[in-house]
Amino acid sequence: MNIITISREFGSGGRELGKRLADELGYDYYDREIILAIAKSQNLDESYVEQAMDHSMWQGRPLTYRRSFTSSVLFQAPQTNFLLEQKRVIEGIAGLGKNCVIVGRNADVFLEGQTMFHIFVCADMEARVRRCIERAAEGEHLTRREIEQNIRRIDKNRARNREIITDNSWGKGTTYDLTVNTSNWDIKELAPAVAEFAKCWFGRTK
Amino acid sequence: MNIITISREFGSGGRELGKRLADELGYDYYDREIILAIAKSQNLDESYVEQAMDHSMWQGRPLTYRRSFTSSVLFQAPQTNFLLEQKRVIEGIAGLGKNCVIVGRNADVFLEGQTMFHIFVCADMEARVRRCIERAAEGEHLTRREIEQNIRRIDKNRARNREIITDNSWGKGTTYDLTVNTSNWDIKELAPAVAEFAKCWFGRTK
Fold first, then answer.
1. pLDDT at residue B62 above 50?
2. What are the respective helix, strand and coil percentages of chain A, to the nearest 5?
């Protein structure tokens, strides 16, 4: 079983790349399904779970416990429950034994030991703002400054969420197997290139 | 004309990847040739030039002039001369109009505006130390601690050398088009994968 995990900067096109990569390779694809499963298990609204996991800052974070996820019971609820549930859901996906692409949710950390290919997707601020504007929901009219603020805030939270469970820094080259800068790509053209690279990765002898 | 530039962490196998990539693609390859050309033009010993550029710290660096390379005459000689000569040599290589791979020397900064693909090569410390031990010159018996110190010192200098001439941070994902972590690759197997990716890059429509 091959698992591709995708971590991404907000607005970099990581989700689209993951979806297209799954299509190219004929893999299953998991993204919002993880949030849905957590919401269901906790009997909570999906958007509440997403908001709590992605957008709110963590409180009472005991830094000395970074290396020990199981010690995280000291974290404040409900985030702790969500993290434990997230781990359970991601392990459940891996337990299905099927090739898949998992976007976000620190799947690379929770699944250590599996046959995995870890990708980080980034882009310069200009490209990310452009992408956010192109994909804004109808009626959403944020200024460029507000979009940039959103991008920085979400990325900061992603980095912090990761910091709680691992020492491998979010966004650092050696944390992943491949880091792709999408600034100068059409994701449609990038996906086959990354798919070929992933095939080489899973086929290597080392 | 396609130019691939390779920046790399010391011990990550970036030079070997560059050489193999050039072989795979039938491109010219430049690495020590740049040092040689600078040494010749300055009538200096090759190893002296390399030492001065890679291993010594820069003195009197006027931080306010980071964005303006041409203002760098305020830097202390001989490093200033070397940087100017390096720029001239790299521009000369591009002027030949042939597809090529250039390893190191901040070629990506000096050649802005060309059709280029920028790669950063990294690896975790364990893999880099192992590589340094495997490739140590005969009679060289550094301890693991000394090797790690060398790696950190050389990388620090590479980052600082870059900082003088550009605002794009050394090693940051968005500074390059692709970042490859070689820790779990045999470079022989990695080179064809990167070559295929590069072909997609140069063939893209965006």
1. no
2. 55, 10, 35
Q: Which residues of A touch B (CB under 8 A)?
A: 120, 122-124, 171, 173-174, 176-181, 183-186, 189-190, 192-194, 196-197, 200-201, 204-206
Q: How many CB atoms lie within 10 A of CB B206?
A: 10
Mutual angle of helices B14-25 and B187-203, in 10-degree steps:
60
- Complex ipTM above 0.90? no
Coil vs helix vs strand at B164: helix
Residue B125 dihedral angles phi and psi, to the nearest 5°: -60, -40
For residue B3, is pLDDT > 80? yes
Q: Which two tokens stand for residue B90?
A: 């790299």
In angstroms, the CA B195 to CA B21 distance is: 6
Better-predicted residue by pLDDT, B67 or B184? B184
Give the per-residue pLDDT at B66.
Answer: 39
**Predicted model pTM:** 0.87
Mark yes or no for CB contact A173/B181 under 8 Å.
yes
d(CA B181, CA A176): 7
